[in-house]
Write a structure and sequence with these properties.
The chain is of the alpha+beta class. It is built from 10 helices and 11 strands. Strands 3, 4, 5, 6, 7, 8, 9, 10 and 11 form a 9-stranded antiparallel sheet that branches. It has a two-stranded antiparallel sheet with strand order 1-2. Helix 5 runs parallel beside helix 7, helix 6 runs antiparallel to helix 7 and helix 9 crosses helix 10.
């Protein structure tokens, strides 16, 4: 299907005529998209017979000129705004969204020998609280594919005792903040989150990726991921803010392997990177460093003057699109998702939720997991852990897709 249609549905702006809104006390109200899509801020436009109100699930600044441009592209692809609106569902409140699918979980679906089986759940909980306290107009937004409107909120593989939950939010400062938790007991624990600034802010994307295998091998990445090769091309410098934080934690000063990513593209010099086997690093170093990077990113954005020029915002979105495409094609977790939930689900999840601005090629080749394909794909158990047998396997045998859980909210 045309990439534009997928982009518009998957966590991106939706434009409505002013007549589609009923306002109470100046606050627009309307039905919304699947899972959660409350209303965003509106920016005033000069009154005219063709003026429109703006409803936007990720905070992108759209004016009359942009609306007409989008509508022209929609017509070329034979897509009508009305057909998109036909897939809307009632909104879910922020409070309900934050506890969707039973989050925060208190116990693991898999086997665990630890009192805290969900190793990275404190990171999820802290981030959720911080977002609620620090961001303006925080609201949940949808995360479904364009064709079938599959809800990526929760997927469970009962046979292999693995599950994944996904939340998606926006605020006046960020067009999209996605959060993912993957739980397979002691075999595998993953917390992943990406914060995309509103396109009125020419600033880095905040990326977080924390993994644990067998509660013995750990991998962590936290970074202000630059949109441009030169730091000076961003609205503000930022590496000088990060260096004092990074300097405090020797355990987080590792170097990334070039097997999946080129660290000179979309990674900063102050990236926190660590491979370690001492779990105490998680609480003693990783958690406080993560908290400081997140709060510093929000402070940086709030100290930056928004640029409402359409041309500038388009340039930022183009760079975010380049980031999404680069990341989608190289995501090393694709093999894990395919093994646990099926290749089709994994591909849609990567391109329509994780990196929803990315351009999908005709044929997507799933890259191997770090260290090799997940041995858990071929048998019961394993949770997609590449170290389930103590060493990586050399062959990957795709599992039958898991039964997807759709529509559950608790």
């Amino acid at each position: 299907m045309p990439s534009l249609k997928r982009t518009l549905i998957a966590c991106t702006p939706l434009l409505l005529p002013a007549s589609a809104f009923v306002t109470q006390g100046g606050v627009p109200s309307s039905t919304t998209h699947a899972f959660v899509t409350p209303l965003a801020k509106t920016r005033s436009t000069p009154s005219s017979s063709s003026s429109t109100a703006r409803r936007d699930t990720e905070g992108d600044a759209i004016d009359i000129e942009a609306r007409l441009s989008f509508e022209s592209k929609l017509r070329l692809d034979k897509i009508s705004i009305e057909s998109l609106l036909a897939k809307t569902k009632p909104a879910v409140s922020l409070e309900d969204a934050q506890v969707a699918h039973g989050m925060p979980w208190e116990d693991s679906i898999g086997r665990s020998d630890h009192e805290d089986p969900l190793l990275y759940m404190p990171f999820w909980e802290w981030q959720m609280d911080f977002m609620s306290e620090s961001l303006t107009n925080l609201r949940p937004i949808e995360h479904c594919t364009s064709d079938s409107c599959v809800d990526f909120g929760l997927n469970v593989n009962e046979d292999k005792k693995a599950r994944i939950v996904n939340h998606c939010y926006a605020s006046d400062e960020y067009r999209k903040i996605r959060m993912t938790y993957y739980d397979a007991g002691d075999n595998t624990q993953v917390f992943n989150s990406v914060w995309y600034p509103d396109p009125s802010y020419n600033l880095p994307v905040l990326g977080i990726d924390l993994l644990a295998f067998n509660r013995k091998k750990y991998l962590a990445i936290v970074d202000f991921q630059p949109l441009h090769d030169d730091e000076a091309d961003h609205a503000q410098p930022y590496e000088d803010l990060l260096q004092p934080i990074k300097d405090k934690y020797d355990s987080l000063k590792g170097r990334m392997s070039s097997k999946f990513y080129d660290e000179t593209q979309f990674f900063s010099k102050q990236m926190l990177f660590a491979r370690f086997e001492d779990e105490s690093v998680v609480d003693n170093d990783l958690l406080p460093a993560f908290q400081k990077y997140v709060s510093t990113h929000v402070d940086l954005l709030k100290s930056t003057e928004a640029d409402d020029a359409l041309e500038s915002q388009k340039a930022v979105l183009d760079r975010q699109k380049a980031y999404d495409t680069y990341s989608a094609e190289r995501d090393p977790a694709a093999g894990l998702f395919a093994a646990m939930f099926g290749k089709d689900w994994a591909e849609n999840f990567i391109f329509d939720f994780l990196f929803s601005l990315s351009e999908r090629k005709d044929e997507f080749v799933i890259p191997p997991m770090p260290g090799g394909p997940p041995p858990g794909a071929a048998r019961k158990g394993g949770g997609g852990n590449p170290f389930a047998n103590g060493k990586p396997s050399q062959q990957q045998q795709p599992a039958a897709p898991a039964k997807e859980v759709v529509g559950s909210r608790r």
